[in-house]
Amino acid sequence: MRPILMKGHERPLTFLKYNREGDLLFSCAKDHNPTVWFADNGERLGTYRGHNGAVWCCDVSRDSTRLITGSADQTVKLWNVQNGAQLFTFSFDSPARSVDFSVGDRLAVITTDPFMELSSSIHLKSIARDPSQQIGESLLVLKGPQGRINRAVWGPLNSTIISAGEDAVIRVWDSETGKLLRESDKETGHKTTVTSLAKSADGSHFLTGSLDKSAKLWDIRTLTLIKTYVTERPVNAVAMSPILDHVVLGGGQDASAVTTTDRRAGKFEAKFFEKILQQEIGGVKGHFGPINALAFNPDGKSFASGGEDGYVRLHHFDPDYFNIKI
Amino acid sequence: MAIDRSEPNPKPQKLRWGELDEEDGEDLDFLLPPKQVTGPDENGIKKVIEYKFNEDGHKVKITTTTRVRKLAKARLSKRALERRNWPKFGDAVQEDVGSRLTMVSTEEIVLERPRAPGSKPEESKVAGDGLAPNPGAVLMVCRTCGKKGDHWTSRCPYKDLAQPTETFIDKPTPSETAAGSSGAAKGTSTYVPPSMRAGAERTTGSDMRRRNEENSVRVTNLSEDTREPDLLELFRPFGPVSRVYVAIDQKTGMSRGFGFVNFVNKEEAERAINKLNGYGYDNLILRVEWATPRTN
Fold this sequence. Notes:
The complex is a heterodimer. In chain A, β22 (235-240) and β23 form a beta hairpin. By secondary structure, chain A is an all-beta fold. The relative contact order of chain A is 0.13. Chain A has one domain (4-320): 7 Propeller (Methylamine Dehydrogenase, Chain H), CATH 2.130.10. Chain A contains no helices and 28 strands. Among the domains of chain B are: 35-85, no CATH class; 213-290, Alpha-Beta Plaits. Chain B has 6 helices and 10 strands. The radius of gyration of chain B is 36 Å and the shape is flat. The interface between A and B is large, with 49 and 32 residues. Chain B: One of its GO terms (cellular component) is eukaryotic 48S preinitiation complex. Chain B: Residues 1-20, 112-131, 167-217 are annotated as: Disordered. Chain B: Residues 215-293 form the RRM domain. Chain B: Pfam families: eIF3g, RRM_1.
């Protein structure tokens, strides 16, 4: 395949998100402007100007009209997707790390980093249909664990919130009462920081990637560990194919590979694994730096990867990708 | 009869069949066979066969072969199509057509399958063809003269060389026992497979990647400057090789005369043994056998 290279960001990428219909790709990076691209040919549509710090995460509503972005400038902003206008700004006392719209886009879960004496916390905000009616107060604030929470997502039917972070423990919280319902098992769980979390297309299971060079597949309701995928590199980003049983892991620095020469310069690869057999299918090379973000198009026929090198690489699969057999 | 035959030029005019004679069926040369279209087949090839009259008035058959290829069609929903027409905003407003923000990669990137579990069929095919004189020919190794691809041992023109090979076999035996004792039993001396490392998870059943210690082949009577790449090149035609090892004397840097090759598939290891045992390589006759007592 011929990946499409998009160099719109000058700083490393932090997050990638496709909209529900798979025709738009939103990219967040450490430069302060999230960007939206057309997902078929990589043409840039626009940028959202307004943040003053690195943008860590974003989410887009189901109808692709609202974008929510979380940034290190201690704000979370709501944008009009079409023209880049800022609709609302939520202010916090510490950098915002992760944002996620609920099913139905009426609520959003936002996590903030620990900052000075403040510990990390999870905020639930209500999102109004009409942006002029938007209020800034949180519906619920959960005091988080020690360390940063890297990702928090909604559970099935918005009844729970799943969070994972630097303390390597995955937690399931009740979204109405804020009670901690479940924690992942320490022995079988990750050994160090969980960097990324991706839900399956149907929301029944999710994948976490960690700096302990592995990714784990969990059941979303019972938090039982289903599968583990082992790589040689710390995992910074994970994604699951919506149509095939494939998981993709994107990783970081492989110290041993630093000195080896390769004819092609981009050695960092996105590794594909068979979801059920836990076996490596292959890798897609090309990035010049560790891969920080991965996203699959909802139609499963293409995926995008964002790296430390500031490039977004959009890959449309060859037909024989769909016939891969182990 | 309304057919105008007064024109000297035999070029046919638009004839109306209703005005034809009753002698239909004879003089229908002016009518052309209908156009035939063989639709796009699985390769997208479409053939259109047309019949025409050329300038000389001869009936000609024109066959047009086209390949119909469907480019990746982005089947966009109505909303997506609307979004396609949105005006640019933010930093994209100043974009001109020549901006190089979005480029298609010049390199063809493939999903590279990992080496050990799956072999690259194209690679092994090419290497195999290189060795064999013609595709499908068996690799013939004569044990007496070591010439490959020419004749079998029984048909060796240099039959008087049979004696020296036996003495050769005596020599590797003492070195082979040394090899057997120095190397670890499974032909892997310092490498500890992940399945046997501390904290490893045992996989049930024979995992192709981990269990190829059973498919280990010992090669003895190697020349001094034989190294791992040489062994790999020699054994690769038989199948995917997961590991090669040549025992090197650290002081002199030369090969100690033996090495191990781990195949992914047992059958291929067996074939390699049958074919390469007695093969002449770099002036020495190789001895190739199972590394462990015959694993059956």
